[in-house]
Every structure is written in structure tokens, then in C-alpha cells.
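Q: How would the C-alpha cells look for this protein?
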Amino acid sequence: MNMRLLFGTCLQYGAARARSKPMIAALGAIALLLAAPNPAMTQEAQPGEVRVMLFGDSLTAGYGLKRENGFAAQMSTWLQQNGTPEGVPVRILNSSVSGSTTAGGVRRLDWALGDAPDAMVLELGGNDLLRGTDPSETRANLDTILARATDEEIEVLLVGLVAKDNYGPEYREAFNAIYPELAEKYGTLLQVDFFGALPEKNADQVPYLQSDGTHPNAEGIAKVVADMGPRVQALIERVLEDRAEAVQN
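A: Here is the predicted structure in C-alpha cell form.
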């Protein structure tokens, strides 16, 4: 769902998304309980662990990739290598579903929150953009998810996408305003563009994309994770600050 080349590959992505439907049940809501020497990532619950839930679409579900090359696994490895705030154990829960829209996210939110996450990486909106969904609808759906997260005292990293002019400048302006404005409204952390770490020029992106020309390959995800990793660390830090404040109160 690379917004820099997205609408040049809409038909390709549509076909890929259709092929992904049989995989949705397998990809959706798989909790990645990854073992590692560092106690930050272990299969058994650790005292004081922070539960970070990925709540998105194919980009974070790992479409087209081996499990160990997907976003969740690579982010886990990045945290192991670069550390977590105060060395806190972290459990990554992958509740992303390939093909999900923001409306689909609203519908499955209750189910996903059953995993009791402390934090959420909210990455939805690309499939809305592909469909030309009215930006006001996308905004309302994301607002619903963020409001619920706020009520549940779940810290959020909101991950955006950047639209071009395929639906005209008014659509682009309305869509691109969604993420920063909602992040400001709810005080969440913000990653403006999931694809921000990839090269600007389409030709330069080829080495980092799968054959569909849209989804990042393992190397592309590695660049995305390296770019987003510090914000995930900041997200974990916010959870620890919330806990400390709760103890004081």
C-alpha cells in the first residue's frame, strides 16, 4: 500500500488482496510470542511485561512474507537488539488482518482488545485509500478506535499513509490531514508515513518491494522497522510512565 506508487499498482494490489482472502484467518489475530535470550521477548508472560498490539492491515499482518520476515517478527528483533525502556519485557500481539479497512477495524476492535494490550500500533487506512473511501468516513472510523483506546487507557502509535493526487487535490488534502490531526486530538505518537523510510522514486523502491510492486519485502520491512523502532520504544516508555503515575496515585 505504498502511497508513492499506490495508484499505479491498484489492479495489482487488488489481485493480491483477493488472493490473500484465504490467508486472513491465519494472519488475523495471531499473537507472536517470540522466544529470545533477552527476556524482552519470551513465550511465557514475564512480570511487568508490556503488551504491544499491532492493529492494522496487510502491511503489519505480514502478507506475502515468511513469519520471521514480517513486521511483527522484525520489530521484535529490533527491540531485542536496540533495547526497551528500562529493559522491560515486551510481548507483541499481531491483531492485523490483510485487506482490513478502518471500518473493519472498528468491527473487530472488541475482539482484539480481549488480548488486553497496554499499547497499540494503529496502522489502518490504506485500503480505504485504495477504494476511494470518503476521507470523512476514514477519519470517523479511526476516531472511534482512538476514542476507545483512550477510554481503555491504551497508549497508541498512529501510523499514517500519504495520498497523492489520484482522486484530486481536495481528496489528498483531506486524507493527509487525518493522521496528524487525530494524533494531536488524542495526544498519540505519530508515524506520518508507513513508507517514509523507502526511497522517494518508484524505480528506487523496487529492491524493497514484493513482486506485486506494492507490499514491502523482507528488506523493505527492515527499513520500515528501523525507521519506526524508536517510536515503538517511545510508546513503551509511555506505558511505563502511566504505570508509575498509577502507583503514585
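The radius of gyration is 17 Å.

The beta strands are 30-32, 50-56, 90-94, 119-123, 155-159, 189-191.

Upvote if useful.
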